[in-house]
């Protein structure tokens, strides 16, 4: 069972539509900077929004170890 299979209502309660739009922006564009340009925000605001979402969920959505962020298994399941 993956971490996404055990998301609780409490974890979902604080998630905002803005966080979900930001998450999808990063997925669609392939980078935090490009998502920021598309959403009219600075890269640091995009990173903060995604990090907050990951903190609320309790698992990472992106693997940031490389130059380009890639979805984790949980991030793919969130789509």
Helix/strand/pairing class, anyone? mainly alpha
Write down the overall mean pLDDT. Answer: 90
Radius of gyration: 12 Å
Beta-strand residue percentage:
5-15%
Helix content: 55-70%
Low-confidence stretches: none
Tell me what you see in this structure.
Helices cover 59% and strands 5% of the residues. A hairpin with a 6-residue loop joins strand 1 (62-63) and strand 2 (70-71). The protein has 5 helices and 2 strands. Helix 2 packs across helix 3. The chain has a two-stranded antiparallel ribbon with strand order 1-2. It is globular and about 30 Å long. By secondary structure, it is mainly α. The chain has helices spanning 9-13, 17-29, 32-39, 43-57, 73-78, and strands at residues 62-63, 70-71.
Short description:
With 79 residues, the chain is mostly helical. It has five helices and two strands; from the N terminus they run ααααββα.
Short key terms for the protein model shown above:
79 residues, mainly alpha, two-stranded antiparallel sheet, 5 helices, 59% helix
SSE diagram, text form:
Layout: H1 9-13, H2 17-29, H3 32-39, H4 43-57, E1 62-63, E2 70-71, H5 73-78
Antiparallel strand pairs: 1-2
Helix pairs in contact: 2-3, 2-4, 3-4
């Amino acid at each position: 069972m993956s971490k996404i299979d055990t998301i609780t209502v409490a974890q979902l309660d604080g998630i905002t539509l803005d966080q979900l739009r930001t998450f999808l922006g990063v997925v669609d564009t392939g980078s935090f900077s490009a998502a920021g340009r598309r959403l009219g925000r600075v890269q640091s605001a995009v990173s903060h929004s995604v990090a907050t979402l990951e903190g609320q969920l309790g698992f990472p959505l992106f693997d940031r170890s490389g130059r380009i962020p890639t979805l984790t298994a949980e991030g793919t399941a969130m789509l």
